[in-house]
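Researcher: I'd like a structural prediction for the single chain below. Treat it as a standalone chain; there are no partners to consider.
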Amino acid sequence: MFPVRQHWLCKALGCYDCCIRCIGAVPYPSLVATLLCYAGVALFCGCGHEALAQTEELVETYFARDPKDFEVMASFIKYFQFVIYGLASFFFLYGILLLAEGFYATSAVKQTFGEFRSTQCGRCLSLTFIIVTYILAFIWLAVFAFSAIPVFFLFNMEHTCHNINILAETTPSINQHSWICMDARQYGLLSWDAMPGKSCGMTLAAICKTTEFHTTYDLYIATFAGAGVTLLALILYLVPTTYNYAVLRFLGRKGIR
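Model: Treating it as a single chain, here is the predicted structure.
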């Protein structure tokens, strides 16, 4: 991928100058974006997979008695876990392609050596990657927003438990806070005829103290953060690539190919 192919040229420039020119051809923004993309996707897929499994266990244990009540949710979790496998594989391959395209575009723009020139096919390939990455960025923006829903639900649940604990310390009667509930049916996790479908009072406060709840909460936060890092990586990649493509178009119109 480096535009240094003439050994006699390296000898003429010296090893130091040759290394500096090679290092200068590295697309550092694309490299950083690729590393961020891998880190974000790994965080999203790994933590998301475990968070979904923990969610199914949490709902089955505390919010539903009949397995048929969360059958739809269980099927959704199962299929989405397979989607996660596909996302991990796709972004692994796509990250390699983006990095390779970044090497090409950066080297072509810098025009470090005379034998390296941009071509019509190369500019078309760069434009294709830009369009695909724009589409992926919009899709991942929706994924980022969607991943905030379970974080919002568990945050409300933890805040409700905190209020119950405060009322339990200040009021002697349990009836004062037994009406405070979290209904999983309102968030679409269960069907409306699911029983009990909700948890109230000190029972809810006890759920919030369990290891399953805290583990699920932390996993969803990590999943949300992973989606944000991946979105940032896609946007970060678009900035230098769009600039490089614009310069390549300019060089093409000037007759430098």
